[in-house]
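REQUEST FORM: STRUCTURE PREDICTION
Request ID: SP-0412
Submitted by: Lab K.M.
Chain count: 1
Length (residues): 235
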Amino acid sequence: MTAKIGETSFETAVSVSTLCCSASALILHLHLERPADHPNPENKSKKVLIWGASSSFGAYASQMAARAGYAVVGVASAKNAQLVKSFGAMHLVDRRSPTVTQELIDIGPFEAVLAASDSAQDQVVLGDVLVAQGGGTFVATIGVWPGVELPSGVTGIFAAFLPDYLDPQNREFTEWVWWEFLESEFASGRLQSVPVRALGGLDKVQEAWKLLKEHKVSGERLAITPSLKLLQHYI
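STATUS: Completed
RESULT:
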């Protein structure tokens, strides 16, 4: 079976890999409802916090939660405010704001919390936000950072999202993600990816890694476009 995503560019298609992780995090691990053309109206009153909403992971998570009818609260750099709101977020909180913790506490409580792109200090904030609403759990893409001590009643969990799609018990979910939701959303143009910047061929891998390591990538995704001639040389 091959996903049919219409006339999608290579750069945009590269970002599709993140969507399956976002879907698994929200639906299988945070137990939210699936996106729908007519979502459950009761979800309007339920807030979902996406920390790192301008990342590729957070962008898809925000759109899926919004399409399921939830009120999405995105945390990202202020310069990416319009981008995050274009993904369906109702609120944008600047992750660098000195009052970010209190701002989120005032907006909450949250039905679900996803740390799509976070640091150790970010997780401390998430812990304070959740304990203020009586405790809870957040899903983090790499788990709880070493040295982070979460308050009593708050748990950070890591999930290896890709194996979810190899579990026979998730067959219906897997088929829905890849051959129903993804296909229809991309073909219709309703699903938006973060801006993708193609650096070049394989010779740009080190440059891309350096940009990521120095935290110089924000509100976009880097892509490497392998040179066909180079690949043929090695084949």
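NOTES: Residues 228-235 have pLDDT under 50 and may be disordered.
Reviewed by: T.R.
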